[in-house]
Amino acid sequence: MTTTTIDSQNLSERLDSATPPRVLDVRTPGEFESAHIAGAYNVPLDLLREHRDEIIKHLDDEVVLVCRSGQRATQAEESLRTAGLTNVHILDGGIMAWESAGFAVNRGTQRWDLERQVRLVAGSIVLTSILGSLAAPKLKWVAGAIGGGLTVAALSNTCAMGMA
Known about the structure:
Number of domains: 2
Largest sheet: 5 strands, parallel
Number of helices: 9
Helix content: 40-55%
């Protein structure tokens, strides 16, 4: 399966055209509320997977999938293509690339994005296990396991905590 991406400039031009694509933002509702492309629909990845067959009945046009950086959009694309939807694209670099290119976003209540939440949880577990190891030395292995998991996540460019 070939992934088809669209860059921010091209998407901006397509959104201003007579037949704009439908933009589906697959981030969490909190992330979407913080910043999203005007006119985008928020369909979180887990809901898209769960209701995929119903959703594709309403997607007969070109669809562009957006997430923070592209990883969740890629998963959404795989799901939609498996269900038979062919005219699907991924915003290259996600909402981060869109904003970096200087394109406007609608902003609401600022919330922490998923990646920041994951870093907070992982860091808190490591800090707590190191402090706890002063009383129970075996707790240092929890910090080691988290460190190993973060290393694998960085090397494979995935994040199991963020995908759960």
